Sequence to fold (269 residues):
Amino acid sequence: MTRPMAGPAQSRGYHMARRKLVYEGKAKILYEGPEPGTLVQYFKDDATAFNAEKKAVIDGKGVLNNRLSEFFMTGLAAIGIPTHFIRRLNMREQLIRQVEIVPLEVIVRNFAAGSMAKRLGMEEGTALPRPIVEFSYKDDALGDPLVPEEYVIAFGWASQQDMDDIVSLALRVNDWMSGVMFGVGIKLVDFKIEVGRVYENDFSRLILADEISPDSCRLWDIETGQKLDKDVFRRDLGNLTDAYTEVAKRLGVLPSNVTHTPTKPTLIN
Ligand code: TMP
Fold:
């Protein structure tokens, strides 16, 4: 299921050759949008882990994450959480509002796992006394280090008011996401969001940005504990597309043939 990493031109495809590239990240590309203040967010099949030390291309991942992020963002918007999502354009692209990204990974944890379990010597899956919100400074060269709120404010990455807004937004996202996932037999162990600033008249406000997908969450089957998120790739636990497809199926957002999306003509014998 994996093939060597494609270069930007390959992952973009010929049909977008004339579009202006704004930013290319590890899993997504941003292009100039049709109107000022908009961007097109393209979901690649590229998967990376451990600050891109481990890489692969996973057929169908971008299509699944585009659909799943649309599902989560529209659901969150419906309960009043402002997001950058405008509409999905096609299998791999969505139209979004341009934002100024706050340089933080905002992580919410309901159960100990991953870096928290490691740092504190806790068993993965231990329930936390309450949801815990933490922040990493977005800097690949530094490996996105965990930072206290004090640093964020002192260095001016966000104000105290921004941080209060970010925590309350993150907890609302957690409540909605936990409930939706519980409804389909999945435990939301933890997740990461990013927020962006938009300017409206003389005011600025913070909105949910980036993506919400199994790339940025830990999702465990409630009954079996099976992992249905990017840990399948990080820890070599099986087929990542199958895991994401399972999440999409349970949520009812699966286009029926999502795992068969050839990028070039295929000979059929
Ligand atoms: P962690 O336990 O590795 O710190 O990860 C916490 C959550 O954040 C987990 O759901 C995975 C997600 N995450 C990202 O989305 N991007 C990242 O670069 C990392 C390290 C974690």
About this structure: Confidence is low (pLDDT under 50) at residues 1-14. Residues 150 and 156 are 10 Å apart (CA to CA).
